[in-house]
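okkk here we go again. third time trying to get the zinc ion bound version out, last two times i messed up the smiles copy paste (missing a bracket lol). double checked this time i swear
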Amino acid sequence: MNTTLYVNATFHEHPDATAALARDGRWLAFGPREELAATQEAEGARSVDLGGGYALPGFIDAHTHLLMMGEALSKADLVAAAGLEEIIEGLAAARAAAPEAPRLLGRSWLFSQVPGGAPHRSMLDAAFPELPVYLDANDVHSAWLNTAALKEIGITANTPDPVGGRIGRDADGEPDGMLYETALHTYLWPAVAGFSTDELRVENLRRALQAYAATGVTGAVDMAVCEDEWRAMSQLLERDGRLPVRIVGHWLINRHEDPRVELDQVARAAELAAAGAAGPAGDWLRLAGIKIVSDGVVDACTAAVHSPYTDGSRPEAIWDLPGLRPVVRAADAAGLQIAIHAIGDAAVTGSLDALEELPEGHVRARRHRMEHLEVISEADVARIARLGIVASMQPVHADPAIQDNWRAMLGAPRIHRGYPWAEFQAAGVTLAFGTDAPTAPYEMLPNLYVAATRRSALDPSREALEPHLKVTLHDAVAHVTRDAAFASGLEGERGSLAPGQLADFVVLGRDPFASAHEELLDGTVLRTVVGAEDTFVA
Ligand SMILES: [Zn+2]
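finally!!
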């Protein structure tokens, strides 16, 4: 038996507790220190001083991309560049730091940084005529390549646009350097994955999990697991016997012109889910279900909307109802949990149509969920409530510092109901919050700040946007702990400081509920603990 007595902290929702006792990685009791120290279980227990901090259940990021996040942490970060010139400067600095690298990888550029909002390979070619340059957009739904990179992955005027995606082209049909939506899945990611190795992937995954531990995260739901990710996760767990962050995965179902290929992917997910559910390994890593990306994003005008964007365009969803129906049915019949990315209101409606056709009660029982829900009709908020669908949303996506283009593309009145967290709460929908890293910063305290203020964590001097849609900090914390656990059907195991639950928690330097919200921006994580083992100590 392995017993730990945690002392010298305030424990969230245990006002009378000055100590907590854990045995074999799970909570036994919370109470007065003298009382717990005197119990039989505490005999021979090691005692850990929590430094007078405030203990919360460990944060669970309900929607993230771990391997991509680890890889992103090693790419040139362009989010703060003021314009094209600073993008090129940032890339030149990254090149100077790794002059021997065979290619240059960057991330997090914004359309608003580029002249006319129209990136072109020639803008990169001027500085990098020979070296392949690959730049992920901030939302990772498009990428900007120079001519050498297009050549390296074999994209030419003759390369066809994939279903649900597009290769940006000049008037003469030559690729212009931009790849959108499924063109990334089809052409870019497999090629870039080929540049990596299992060893590198395991290292990048470890890097992501350690970064998460330092921000108080103890659990994460990876929303686009494919073979490479699953292998890296399994190898890391096998190597270390445990993980710094418990992982729940959703298998990415790629759109394909042959529906049988889509159903094969569902079958693969079912196979992995069945294999991983039993045994103690499931406490660390499990495959819960599938992920379907039903549309794109607002910034690139690829999210499916009922009324056109301000530029007049109105794209279709990536998955129409006839395409969605068999995949949703097969996954549900296999007992898999379904997560559907739907950002535009038309994609939300279409996804709900497919989920609503499932047998009575399945949506609630399997805990099917929808991701993002940035633009949604009031009628569909009510429908999500009625069906019992979990709404998985990412406060950092609403950070005012990255909203200029989003708002310009949608225009009033839609922007006044963008990211309507408060409406979901009022309708009785379970909200699970995440960050969708690396499309947004992964740090959890700034994410909670945006949730509770609708102000910018990147630039706090900016005005709040649509503050009527914010939630209280208490609710925001519940959405990254209790509700995020519920979203994966694990509320009996995770998300609360309660006897019987896994001893996963974070200790903050001060009580966040007794401080100004601004203090979340430089809030200190003193310690992060998973299964009564430290994963981070400041
Ligand atoms: Zn995502």
